[in-house]
Design brief:
CATH architecture of the largest domain: 2-Layer Sandwich
Order of helices and strands: HHEEHEEEEEEEEEHEHEHEEH
Strand order of the largest sheet: 4-3-5-6-7-8-9-10
CATH class of the largest domain: Alpha Beta
Radius of gyration: 19 Å
Number of strands: 15
Bound molecules: 6-O-phosphono-alpha-D-fructofuranose
Distance between the termini: 49 Å
Shape: globular
Structural class: alpha+beta
Number of helices: 7
């Protein structure tokens, strides 16, 4: 079985980029270990603090964030980092070429109930010599990403990653502490009958999203002509992984609970990396009205509506928004 470094070399990934990816992976291996320890390590539960998103930080949110931040800002090839858990971007090396954004522990509301969580990361190249503590150097659209990935801390710890040549899956072999290639060339089925959305928000959605879900629930007799199944794990990493494995559509649309917010999920370290992975696996990713990776960010914590997965189903949802 090929190790991660062998796959990156075969994909002709620049040595500096490989060293940045390796630092992300080293931090994620430590996060995986701490999650496995759970209560035994005394690191479950919440802190007294809120992050810039206004969300109460779990102890493991902070621990995971600090592991990734400390590794990356001391890497000579990293200009800076942006994190869901950091108010501002953090400078690394002035000579660093790469910018890394991440959600250190996505789905952390699942931690204390022992359900899957994940780390999501995205890597861009600095386009000028601005310091990494100036968020403007990060504000590039998702098409500029040179790598994107996630680590899913599930029954096994899986690294799913793309550097632009398709999507590979690596499984953490805990006997040697290495991620080894277990699947390559992932292709998302183009059609699906399985949707993932938080139905409790239904009354807050735009009419177009309400209509699509209503039509899904009408089943074979309805306009979509098939019986749909539903899943909701409240962990984007787990939902995206299921979609990579068997198809599906994941939606977190805009809703009017807080009309000032474009959506719940964040563009730079959730929407964009997951969109690169999904598109590299033959799927599609849209706000409902445009491709997510074409959205021009205005701030490191910008939010975005998300509709991603099997490309023919995403096209249907976009069609509802065009009517
Ligand atoms: P809700 C986790 O907090 C997250 O950012 C995504 O991983 C997940 O898909 C979504 O929010 C869950 O949101 O409103 O259902 O709790």
């Amino acid at each position: 079985m090929k190790r991660l470094d062998q796959v990156l070399a075969a994909d002709k990934v620049p040595a500096e980029l490989e060293l940045v990816i390796n630092d992300v992976i080293v931090a994620c291996k430590d996060i995986a270990y701490k999650l496995r320890q759970g209560e035994l390590a005394g690191i479950l539960g919440a802190t007294e603090d809120e992050n810039v998103q206004g969300e109460t930080q779990k102890k493991l949110d902070v621990i995971s964030n600090d592991l990734l931040k400390d590794m990356l800002v001391s890497n000579p090839f990293v200009r800076g980092i942006g994190s869901e858990e950091e108010d501002y971007t953090v400078a690394g090396s002035a000579q660093g070429k790469y910018l890394v954004t991440f959600d250190p522990l996505d789905g952390s509301s699942n931690i204390d109930v022992n359900l899957s969580v994940g780390t999501i990361f995205s890597i861009l190249e600095a386009q000028d010599d601005r310091s990494g503590d100036q968020q403007e150097v990060f504000l590039q659209n998702g098409r500029k990403q040179v790598a994107a990935g996630y680590v899913l801390y599930g029954p096994s710890a899986l690294l799913v990653m793309t550097t632009g040549n398709g999507v590979n899956i690596f499984t953490l072999d805990t006997t040697v502490g290495e991620f080894v290639l277990t699947k390559s060339g992932i292709q998302i089925p183009e059609d699906t009958a399985e949707f993932a959305i938080n139905m409790s928000n239904q009354r807050f959605w735009e009419p177009e999203m309400k209509q699509y879900i209503d039509d899904c629930l009408k089943g074979e007799e309805g306009p979509l002509g098939k019986r749909y199944n539903m899943r909701w794990v409240a962990s984007m990493v787990a939902e995206v992984h299921r979609i990579l494995m068997r198809g599906g559509i994941f939606m977190y649309p805009w809703d009017n609970r807080d009309p000032s917010k474009a959506g719940k999920l964040r563009l730079m370290y959730e929407g964009n990396p997951m969109s690169m992975i999904v598109e590299q696996a033959g799927g599609a990713s849209s706000t409902g009205r445009m491709d997510i990776m074409d959205v021009q960010p205005e701030g490191i914590h910008d939010r975005v509506p998300v509709v991603l997965g099997s490309k023919n189903e995403v096209a249907k949802v976009v069609g509802y928004h065009k009517k």
